[in-house]
Amino acid sequence: MYNQVLNDMKPSASMKAGLSEQQKVMTNLAVGIPDLVAPREISDLVIQAAEAQRYNYVPSRGTKKALQNLKHLLFETEDALVPDRNLLLVSGAKYGIYLTLKTVCNAGDTVVLMQPYWLSYPEIVRSLGLNFVSWHPRVDAGGHLHFDFADFEALVKQHNVRALILNNPNNPSGKVFSKEFATQLAAMLERAGGWLLIDEVYRDLVFDSGSEKEFEVTGNNIVRVGSLSKSLSIPGLRLGYIAGPDKMIEYADIFNQHIQTCINSLSCYVMENLERDVFRSFAATCSHTYGARFALIASAFKGSDLTVLHSDATFYSLVNFGKHFADGQAACDFLAEKLDIIAVPGLPYGSDFKDYVRICLTLPTPTLAKVFDNILKHTPL
After folding, report:
1. How many CB atoms lie within 10 A of CB 99?
2. pLDDT of residue 22 exceeding 80
3. CA dist 103 → 99, 131, 195 (Å)
4. I need a labelling partner for 32 at 20 to 30 A (CA). Which of 58, 231, 239, 348 fits?
5. Among 130, 84, 78, residue whose Cα is nearest residue 249
């Protein structure tokens, strides 16, 4: 009676934990909603769009002016990306990932997911009639993730691999992959007739501000998906994009016309008129703030049995509670019942991380300091 995929599809663990009305009275470390207030200029642009009655459809790829400004904001030095041919505005990166896989894959193909993966990837993959296999990392004593290319080659040989999703920077670990790593992956996939899908939503929230060049990765089999949701604190505007080869964008746009029609007109207006200085300045403030908050949690838990994975970006932390609880879910149950703290267990991000808990660093720094102190005081030994 209903789509069979729904028999196995689970609700989003982060949205279920952090977006219900009940959770408003608890300390919410579960959902990735930035607490830093968006620049005033964003509100001004939304008001201008409303006053100008910008409620009609826009072109399915976004207006020419919006695409040109997107190139100016994010891809200014990347001459290979031509706005009219290589960019498509979409309603958020999540839809961009769905649309990309819909465009480059066929039912029965296999997608490789790197653990820890963003928890929506498996459900998006399954909803398209695709399969997925995991590429498992090694975690060293310093909390750094390491991926062996030999393991990936084995997956390609064993499965009908059509695509790999590289979440860079990674949600939930905060790991940043180098341009060299992504380029080597793309070459390996190209030999196998596959695609590299780079989810770069957090590219502007890298703690090292000199990392921009590391994300300039283009090729015949590379698609990059991102949004301005987190770097501008505007997740509700659903302002996302796809950057890819001409033909891929052309085909994705055909699906988009029949499924989504176009990005909403208010968001398109924001994209048309957002100034680079406003964007860069606010994103830099965000990355500095979140970097300081990661340093806070790393310092707070240092020396305890709650180990924190190393992070270079985003506003998430993966914390291992395995020495205290049966798994991450048990740890989350304890935090909710005893301390009124909501967090997300690690299992939805991959079986390798079942003992972990994802903690969002999206509360004011003094509040987070008190929360971490409370966790350390009350976590049973």
Report:
1. 24
2. no
3. 6, 15, 11
4. 58
5. 84
Q: Which parts of the chain fold into alpha helices (H)?
A: 13-18, 40-51, 64-74, 83-86, 93-104, 121-127, 149-158, 179-191, 246-259, 265-273, 276-301, 328-339, 365-378
pLDDT at 21 over 50: no
Using alpha carbons, select from 325, 308, 15 the residue that is nearest to residue 173: 308
Indicate whether 20 pLDDT > 80: no
CA dist 364 → 172, 233, 314 (Å): 19, 14, 15
Round to whole Å and give the CA distance between 339 and 61.
47
pTM above 0.90, yes or no: yes
Over residues 199-230, the pLDDT tens digits come to 999 999 999 877 777 899 999 999 999 999 99
174 within 8 A of 349, measured Cβ to Cβ? no
**CA proximity to 60, closest of 83, 93, 90:** 90
Other CB atoms within a 10 A radius of the CB of residue 333 amount to: 14
Longest dimension (CA), the chain: 61
Calculate the CA dihedral of residues 125, 126, 128, 130 and round it to 10 degrees: 80
User: Phi/psi class of residue 307: alpha, beta or left (left: φ > 0; alpha: ψ in -120 to 50)?
Assistant: beta
Domains and CATH numbers, the chain: 4-38+279-375 (3.90.1150.10), 40-274 (3.40.640.10)
Q: What are the tokens at 157?
A: 């040989």
DSSP code string of 30-68: SS----SPPPHHHHHHHHHHHHTT--S---TT--HHHHH
Go through 108-127 and write b for each residue having 16 or more CB atoms within 10 A of its CB, e for each that does not: ebbbbbbbbbbbbbbbbbbb
